[in-house]
C-alpha cells in the first residue's frame, strides 16, 4: 500500500525558512517522479513543484521559483521541500504526491497523496 | 500557463440525481492530459479520472469523464451520500500543472 507521510510544517515568521519532508513507503521510490501541491485555507489546489527520477530534473510554479527547492533522497525514500523567504501567501497545507505514468513516455499525474502538513507564515 | 475554469461553482442536488461538472481550458490540453479529483473536508484529494476518461483503480462506475481539447466533463450518474464533496480538474500536459477552481457538490 502506498503511504506518504509529510512532516515539518510549523508556524514561521515572514522571511523565515522551513524544510518539509515526505517519507514514502509501499513502492520503489526511486522509480517515480514526485510533486508538492499546496492548498491555502479555504482555497483550491495549487501545484508547487515536481522532481523527476534519477537525474532529478526539477520544476517550479512561478510563485515559488527562486525561493523553494525540491529535492529527493532515494536512499531514504524521502522527498523534501526547502522553503526560504517565506511570505504570508505561502500559508497552506502542503501535500506530497506520487506521480504515475500510464505508459512509458506519457505525462505523469498525481495519483497518490499524503495527508498534508500545515505551514503558517505569520508574525 | 493553461487556465482551467470549472462550472458551476456550486451544484445543489439530491441523492440519486445526476451531476454534470464542467472544466474548460483557455487553450487545448494536449493528449487529453486531464484528471479529476474529489476532496472531502479535512482530507487529501482522491484521484477519480485520468486521461480525461479513464477511471482510477477502485473508483465506482457511476463516475465518468469525457471531453477533449478545451472542454471536459465529469459526470456522476446517480449521486450517493458520500459523493457530496468538492471536485477539481487538473491539466498535466504542460508545465506548470494547473488546477481548476473547484465545484462543490452539495445536498
What's the short story on this structure?
The complex is a heterodimer of chains A (123) and B (107). By secondary structure, chain A is mainly β. Chain A is 0% helix and 50% strand.
Provide structural commentary:
The complex is a heterodimer of chains A (123) and B (107). By secondary structure, chain A is mainly beta. Chain A has no helices and 11 strands. Chain A has strands at residues 3-7, 11-12, 18-25, 34-39, 45-51, 58-60, 68-73, 78-83, 92-100, 109-113, 117-121. In chain A, strands 2, 4, 5, 6, 9, 10 and 11 form a 7-stranded mixed beta sheet that branches. Chain A has a 4-stranded antiparallel beta sheet with strand order 1-3-8-7, with no helix packed on it. The model of chain A has no long low-confidence stretch (mean pLDDT 96). The mean pLDDT of chain B is 96. In chain B, 0% of the residues lie in helices and 48% in strands. In chain B, strands 2, 4, 5, 6, 9, 10 and 11 form a 7-stranded mixed beta sheet that branches. In chain B, a hairpin with a 2-residue loop joins strand 7 and strand 8 (71-76). Chain B is mostly beta strands and 107 residues long. Chain B is globular and about 35 Å long. Chain A binds chain B through residues 35, 37, 44-47, 50, 59-62, 95, 102, 106-116, and chain B through 31, 33, 35, 37, 39, 43-47, 50-51, 54, 56, 88, 90, 92-93, 95-102.
Relative strand content of chain B: over 45%
Low-confidence parts of chain B: none
Report the count of strand segments of chain B. Answer: 11
Major sheet characteristics of chain A: 7 strands, mixed
Order of helix and strand elements from N to C terminus of chain B: EEEEEEEEEEE
| Helix vs. strand class of chain B | mainly beta
SSE succession of chain A: EEEEEEEEEEE
Q: Tell me, briefly, the overall form of chain B.
A: globular
Radius of gyration of chain B: 13 Å
First-to-last CA distance of chain B:
34 Å
Largest β sheet strand count, sense and barrel closure of chain B:
7 strands, mixed
Q: How many helical elements of chain A?
A: 0
- Share of helical residues of chain B: under 10%
Number of strands of chain A: 11
**What oligomeric state best describes the polypeptide chains here?**
heterodimer
Q: Low-confidence segments of chain A, ≥5 residues, pLDDT <50? A: none
| Arithmetic mean pLDDT of chain B | 96
Strand content of chain A: over 45%
